[in-house]
């Protein structure tokens, strides 16, 4: 069977599995379409409240019902580098809207937290659930029923998935996502990682570490490594929610501003009032999500999306599983080497041909659905381009380069970096888990070693500093799942485990927590489900048990006789300290409502 036929078969089973819930979602969407956005039926007081702060021109325009109104949902704040550029976007969008006879208003702001700031801190336990808060905030902004279309300004880890969940909840409203772009390149990510390891070994001090980090994260824009933030941008483009070529243009450039203005005008062109009505809930379908998963594997993208994409799809009545991710991974080769899968950053990726080059390679191989709807009004082939600035200050598009600008960063389908994608499902008597293998060398993909149990990443760090881990072992870090403590990322483990692996020890991580897009060279079985706090088998593992992780075969097992393992008591952990401080007490309801990681770990009722 050809890869195109295999992809078709996977897509068809998703469509069949999703049919009841997808039909219900589309019925509800049709009801909302019939009602439409009709400001003329709002009470005079309601409407007056809606445009009270507008200019006289915009008030006049909005008092009738013939001028389209564009809602802006923004994640702007000026502390976080990825979101700071959005400060100037509303003015650009409003100006562009007026040029085509429309109006634009900022409908709402959504919170944007940075996992980079909160790594290893208490605030990280709010991170995953901030996605659902963002979705709720989006819903509040759009609930005024003032908008014919919406543009979404978001970049980073939980922001884009939260905005997608909100947008698909209002599926009758056309949507265009507008990125801010990555910061310019600083020191290499490899150099940064080496300094982190030296610090963990006590060979350099805090001053040297801070200097290194500041040279890496040094200006406005997204972090340049290929983590969840940049995986988000890839997803938005390959799923047709960006305008073509928009993802990886640096902020503060004329091309970035031109793309923003063009995106605003495109959003106003696809409202119900025109001839190209493109409601986002119909535009994004099962094929769109399959394309997103293909892109995730072809680029070695973030493991966080094995949770987020499932949650996003659930809102639209589309049912995805980790098996879908793993099966797609088997037929999709790795075509990009961007840190942590290589030494390059996203700017190098973009310069070498970027998404336009990669999308064309995948389309030509039959590994993407070409006939999907996009916000651009054409199929996915229209995204095999490179955006440039024309002499008149507008965007012009050229075909993506025929040859990779750097075949160590972006390669062709017939010469992949590895024959399969970046993500695999692991199964066994511990439960289900996900592993990112694109950055793990083949010789490290099998580990069989005694378990060492930890109930926090701080416990492992203490053991490392005490030189208790100079041996082969599998670190089992549990009670890190959604219902336990909000499922934080465990990046504080990365330097220590990397050092031990470099010293020749066979090490691996098994956890019901997250590692995200920065999952690196150490094999890490993450998102173990069911989690320990919900009675999962990971809670039965004891110190010294032999654990076998085989990423090639897709297995994760504790080598204990089945009868003995099944009758062992479940471990308990005192999670009291995780329930308060840094706002965690306000998130108690989220922890109680959270679903399983393999079902999206969301707190809302799916379609």
TrEMBL record:
<comment type="similarity">
    <text>Belongs to the IlvD/Edd family.</text>
</comment>
<keyword id="KW-0411">Iron-sulfur</keyword>
<dbReference type="InterPro" id="IPR020558">
    <property type="entry name" value="DiOHA_6PGluconate_deHydtase_CS"/>
</dbReference>
<keyword id="KW-0119">Carbohydrate metabolism</keyword>
<comment type="function">
    <text>Catalyzes the dehydration of 6-phospho-D-gluconate to 2-dehydro-3-deoxy-6-phospho-D-gluconate.</text>
</comment>
<protein>
    <recommendedName>
        <fullName>Phosphogluconate dehydratase</fullName>
        <ecNumber>4.2.1.12</ecNumber>
    </recommendedName>
</protein>
<dbReference type="GO" id="GO:0046872">
    <property type="term" value="F:metal ion binding"/>
</dbReference>
<comment type="pathway">
    <text>Carbohydrate metabolism; Entner-Doudoroff pathway.</text>
</comment>
<dbReference type="InterPro" id="IPR000581">
    <property type="entry name" value="ILV_EDD_N"/>
</dbReference>
<keyword id="KW-0004">4Fe-4S</keyword>
<feature type="domain" description="Dihydroxy-acid/6-phosphogluconate dehydratase C-terminal">
    <location>
        <begin position="408"/>
        <end position="601"/>
    </location>
</feature>
<dbReference type="GO" id="GO:0051539">
    <property type="term" value="F:4 iron, 4 sulfur cluster binding"/>
</dbReference>
<feature type="binding site">
    <location>
        <position position="223"/>
    </location>
    <ligand>
        <name>[4Fe-4S] cluster</name>
    </ligand>
</feature>
<dbReference type="Pfam" id="PF00920">
    <property type="entry name" value="ILVD_EDD_N"/>
</dbReference>
<keyword id="KW-0311">Gluconate utilization</keyword>
<feature type="binding site">
    <location>
        <position position="156"/>
    </location>
    <ligand>
        <name>[4Fe-4S] cluster</name>
    </ligand>
</feature>
<dbReference type="GO" id="GO:0009255">
    <property type="term" value="P:Entner-Doudoroff pathway through 6-phosphogluconate"/>
</dbReference>
<dbReference type="GO" id="GO:0005829">
    <property type="term" value="C:cytosol"/>
</dbReference>
<keyword id="KW-0408">Iron</keyword>
<keyword id="KW-0456">Lyase</keyword>
<feature type="domain" description="Dihydroxy-acid/6-phosphogluconate dehydratase N-terminal">
    <location>
        <begin position="68"/>
        <end position="381"/>
    </location>
</feature>
<dbReference type="InterPro" id="IPR004786">
    <property type="entry name" value="6-phosphgluc_deHydtase"/>
</dbReference>
<dbReference type="InterPro" id="IPR056740">
    <property type="entry name" value="ILV_EDD_C"/>
</dbReference>
<dbReference type="Pfam" id="PF24877">
    <property type="entry name" value="ILV_EDD_C"/>
</dbReference>
<dbReference type="GO" id="GO:0004456">
    <property type="term" value="F:phosphogluconate dehydratase activity"/>
</dbReference>
<dbReference type="InterPro" id="IPR042096">
    <property type="entry name" value="Dihydro-acid_dehy_C"/>
</dbReference>
<dbReference type="InterPro" id="IPR037237">
    <property type="entry name" value="IlvD/EDD_N"/>
</dbReference>
<dbReference type="GO" id="GO:0019521">
    <property type="term" value="P:D-gluconate metabolic process"/>
</dbReference>
<keyword id="KW-0479">Metal-binding</keyword>
């Amino acid at each position: 069977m050809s890869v195109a036929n295999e992809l078709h078969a996977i897509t068809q089973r998703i469509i069949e599995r999703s049919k009841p819930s997808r039909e219900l979602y589309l019925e509800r969407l049709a009801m909302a379409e019939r009602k439409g956005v009709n400001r003329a039926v709002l009470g005079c007081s309601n409407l007056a409240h809606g445009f009270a702060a507008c200019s006289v021109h915009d008030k006049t325009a909005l008092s009738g019902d013939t001028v389209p109104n564009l809602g802006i949902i923004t994640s702007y704040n000026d502390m976080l580098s990825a979101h700071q550029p959005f400060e100037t976007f509303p003015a650009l969008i409003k100006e562009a809207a007026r040029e085509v006879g429309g109006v634009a208003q900022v409908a709402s702001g959504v919170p944007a937290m940075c996992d980079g700031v909160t790594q290893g801190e208490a605030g990280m336990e709010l991170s995953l659930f901030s996605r659902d808060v963002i979705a709720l905030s989006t819903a509040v902004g759009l609930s005024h029923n003032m908008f014919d279309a919406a543009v979404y300004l978001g970049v980073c880890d939980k922001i884009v998935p939260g905005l997608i969940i909100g947008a698909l909840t209002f599926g009758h409203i056309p949507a265009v996502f507008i990125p801010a772009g990555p910061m310019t390149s600083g020191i290499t990510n490899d150099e940064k990682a080496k300094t982190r390891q030296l610090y963990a070994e006590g060979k350099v001090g805090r001053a040297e570490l801070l200097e290194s980090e500041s040279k890496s994260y040094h200006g406005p824009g997204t972090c340049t490594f290929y983590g969840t933030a940049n995986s988000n941008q890839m997803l938005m483009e390959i799923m047709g929610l960006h305008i073509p070529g928009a993802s990886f243009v640096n902020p503060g450039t004329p091309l970035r501003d031109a793309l923003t203005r063009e995106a605003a005008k495109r959003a106003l062109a696809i409202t119900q009032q025109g001839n190209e009505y493109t409601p986002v809930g119909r535009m994004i379908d099962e094929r769109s999500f399959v394309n997103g998963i293909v892109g995730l594997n072809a680029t070695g993208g973030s493991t966080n999306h094995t949770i987020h994409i499932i949650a996003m799809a659930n809102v639209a009545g589309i049912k995805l599983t980790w098996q879908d991710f793993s099966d797609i991974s088997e037929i999709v080769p790795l075509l990009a080497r961007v840190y942590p899968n290589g030494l390059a950053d996203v700017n190098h990726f973009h310069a070498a041909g970027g998404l336009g080059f990669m999308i064309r390679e995948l389309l030509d191989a039959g590994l993407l659905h070409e006939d999907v709807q996009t916000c651009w009004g054409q199929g996915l082939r229209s995204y095999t381009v490179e955006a440039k600035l024309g002499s008149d200050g507008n965007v012009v598009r050229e075909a993506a380069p025929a040859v990779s600008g750097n075949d160590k960063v972006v390669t062709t389908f017939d010469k992949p970096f590895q024959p399969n994608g970046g993500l695999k499902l692991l199964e066994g008597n511990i439960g289900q888990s996900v592993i990112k293998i694109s950055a793990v060398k083949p010789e490290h993909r099998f580990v069989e070693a005694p378990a060492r149990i930890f109930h926090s990443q701080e416990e492992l760090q203490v053991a490392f500093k005490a030189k208790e881990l100079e041996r082969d072992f599998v670190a089992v870090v549990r009670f890190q799942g959604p219902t336990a403590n909000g499922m934080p990322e465990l990046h504080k483990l990365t330097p220590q485990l990397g050092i031990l692996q470099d010293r020749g020890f066979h090490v691996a991580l098994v956890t019901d927590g997250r590692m995200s897009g920065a999952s690196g060279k150490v094999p890490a079985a993450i998102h173990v489900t069911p989690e320990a706090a919900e009675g999962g088998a990971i809670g039965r593992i004891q110190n010294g048990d032999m654990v076998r992780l085989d990423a090639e075969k897709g297995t994760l097992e504790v080598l204990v006789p089945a009868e003995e393992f099944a009758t062992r008591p479940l471990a308990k952990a005192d999670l009291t300290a995780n329930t308060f401080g840094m706002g965690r007490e306000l998130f108690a309801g989220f922890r109680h409502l959270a679903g399983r990681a393999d079902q999206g770990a969301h707190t809302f009722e799916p379609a």
